[in-house]
Amino acid sequence: MDRIAIISDIHGNIPALKAVLTDIKTRNIKRIFCLGDLAGKGPSSAEAVDLVRENCELVVKGNWDFFMAEQKSEMLLWHQNKLGKERLKFMRELPVYAEFYMSGKLIRLCHACPNDIFHRTHLSSDKKDRLRLLEATKSLGEESDVVGYGDIHSAHIDNFDGKTIFNTGSVGNPLDITQSSYAIIEGVYKSKEPATFTTSIVRVPYDIKLAIKQAMDTDMPDKEAYINELKTGIYRGRRKV
């Protein structure tokens, strides 16, 4: 059986990313896919992009990757200056989704939704909103059997109508509990033949004090809000619903 570690939403938090990469290595998982939002919020955008490129076989685009590469603001400019032109070019050219068969199931991986990186779906969202994650794409024209996504920073696995939707949670900015999370899928990679398939969520403690210190040692915009999220797992002072 093949195992793939799926990480997402690093947001420039290097202590968290290193802790997750170490955990993946101790499990002897060789293949890592990343579902975007590499930079922003945290202070180490450039190093986060470099570590992801070094360790991940596949990377898809998140909404923050889009913002970093395509938009301008005072907050974004701070991170863009750290990233430099070559990294921003890499982020601009990332695909929106990836798809492959595993143990006879069509798997799609994306940041928020295969057809829309800004479509936000929670476990509590209406069924019709969750079903959008499974919609056919232009490339294959088929509904997926399994969709993995990030974006909401809250890990879960949702099985219904013979389909599976899972959220990896966030490596660097978790908003459910104050530990990093990532997903593992296990099956026969690139096989259309039915076989055993498993999805699981892993929680990883990391050095939050170090992550806070690294933010405090900079003049990064919005660092107080970021630090509060790391401490509490609460999004900008209010819980997501």
From TrEMBL:
SUPFAM superfamilies: Metallo-dependent phosphatases. One of its GO terms (cellular component) is cytoplasm. One of its GO terms (molecular function) is phosphatase activity. This is Protein phosphatase. Belongs to the metallophosphoesterase superfamily. YfcE family. CDD domains: MPP_superfamily (cd00838). It comes from Clostridium grantii DSM 8605. Residues 3-186 form the Calcineurin-like phosphoesterase domain.
